[in-house]
Amino acid sequence: MLGLFVSGVAIGLIGIIPFLGWLVVIVGVFVLFYMWVMGLIAAINGQMKPMPILGKKYEEWFSGV
User: Fold this and answer.
1) Three-class SS state of 33
2) What's the total number of domains in the chain?
3) How many CA atoms lie within 13 A of 15 on its CB side?
4) Which of 4, 17, 39, 48 is most buried, with most CB under 10 Å away?
């Protein structure tokens, strides 16, 4: 969840840039929503597996937390 939050903040900051940033935000929001839904489904099923796309990177980046 921390990884999704940090990614959301980063995408929000990119959204400040006109046009290109707005396109990145639109795509990024859909990607984050997809990752959140897949993580929620895995949690409901009692599975502990990384989220798709950036899950392995989140584990590396936030291993000390």
Assistant:
1) helix
2) 1
3) 11
4) 39
